[in-house]
Amino acid sequence: MMRWKAPAGRLIGAAVWMTCVLFLLSACAPRPAPPVPAAASPTPPSVPAGAVLGIELTSERDEGQVELAAGTGARWARVPLRWRTIEPRQANPPAYRFGTYDKLLGALRQHGFQIILTVRDNPTWAADTPCGPLNAAGQEALLRFLEEAVSRYRQAPYQVQHWELYNEPDNTDAETYGAQGGCWGNAPAAYAELLRQAYPVIKKANPEAIVIFGGLALEQIEGNPFNVRFLEQVLDAGAGAYFDWANFHYYPAFSYRWDRFGRGIQGKAAYLQGILAKAGAEKPVMCSEVGQPTAGPAAEGYSDQKTADEMVRSYARAAWAGMPAAVWHKLQDRPDDVRLYGLVDAGGAPKPAYRTFQLLAQHLSRSYFRGELSVPAAGPLEAYEFDYKGEGFTHLVIAWRNGEGPAVSMSIPAPRAMVYRPSGEVTEVHANGPGGSAPSGEDITIQIDSHPLILLY
């Protein structure tokens, strides 16, 4: 039989947990070791697990993206709000050009999306770089721009509530990685001051607005362009009260850095939660980029199957972690992309990953997170259970085997189940019928390998 297992750390006393966090953080140098994972709060039962699903649109100009995005079933749309496009020239009064965004955001909202606008791309007159600290005129102009944009887009037909300030602000290399949308990594105090000034402006323009810390890369790659202590330094500079959600990016290629603090996306979220707790600034943690290429350099071994598998794992784990949003990077490939992260190709044709996302949206929109399953004698099996409403079923389980090795047996306490694979293959299984057996009573035994299964029963 399957038993519900509370998320790791939930039963640890708060005082003991904080002692562990402080000990770990005080003992590390030169880069702090991630703290003990914070106890995660599962998605509230009243909120469908599908509420976490988001998609990133990397262009504001291609309106054909809207229908493709709507077809995924995602609840969130992350869109770059390029300041330099809207205010290319300095003028008094400012001459804003919102027209392109008006059409795009109105269309997205018409399809029911919750929209995250990522403010980025400085005009040339406002800063020395397109991605980092502003000059004096730029600082004043950005605040005016935010006031205007937030006031404009809080209203129908847009109803935008979520504002992210720059993308990967922990980047230190404006020349090589500035096109990513952020390069405040050498100036954490300046980013803290940006938050301190922008927060009250945004809240005055829309008291319901959610101010989001720019999505942190927080990784070590060739050249080490990212300041991995950026969040701590911004908090040390006093910015803890001037954003509502913390935010990070997660790519499975770097999972080895986070798995000791949680599994995959959970581990990186736990790291941020620990830093926030140490600073007395606990708040929700979202992921504004999670992705896995379907193709790229041959030596890196990408495939449609790997992307589908990682997508299902990441969203099951994000539900466990109680994230308000996890945004898939990205909707569409560009012709010059080296690694193809899109759900659709550069010509707009859906790839297999698009159908996997649709499958998750279809079923998680009817699912309410219950917890991780403890399956006796299952070894490396990882499984999550949801209450399910619809199609004559009451339970949904997402399960897979971690690591290499033979399939693991999992017993389903029902005479009938539907088995969905990320590839789209669907099998109906009955006790003593195809795909399963009945070792006791009418239970079904399913064989689980490293490719996740979505089970309805």
**Average pLDDT score:** 88
Largest sheet: 8 strands, parallel
Give the strand order, joined by hyphens, for the main sheet: 6-5-4-3-2-9-8-7
Parts with pLDDT < 50 across at least 5 consecutive residues: 1-43, 436-440
Q: Which CATH first-tier class of the largest domain would you pick?
A: Alpha Beta
Number of domains: 2
CATH architecture of the largest domain: Alpha-Beta Barrel
Task: Give the class from helix and strand content and strand pairing.
Answer: alpha/beta
* Estimated radius of gyration: 23 Å
- Count of DSSP H/I helices: 11
By CATH, the topology of the largest domain is: TIM Barrel
How many β-strand stretches? 17
Overall helicity:
25-40%
Structure description:
With about 450 residues, this protein is an alpha/beta fold. The chain folds into two domains: about 15-365, TIM Barrel, CATH 3.20.20; about 370-455, Immunoglobulin-like. It is about 30% helix and about 20% strand. It contains eleven helices and 17 strands. The strands form three sheets. It has an eight-stranded parallel beta sheet. Strands 1-10-11-12-17-14-15 form a seven-stranded antiparallel beta sheet, with helices on one face. The model is unreliable at about 1-45 and about 435-440 (pLDDT under 50).
TL;DR?
This protein is of the alpha/beta class and 457 residues long. It has helices at 14-26, 64-72, 83-86, 99-110, 136-153, 174-177, 188-205, 230-236, 265-278, 304-321, 352-364, and strands at 3-5, 53-56, 76-82, 114-120, 162-165, 210-213, 246-250, 285-290, 326-328, 367-374, 381-390, 393-401, 408-412, 416-420, 426-430, 444-448, 453-456. Helix content is 28%, strand content 21%.
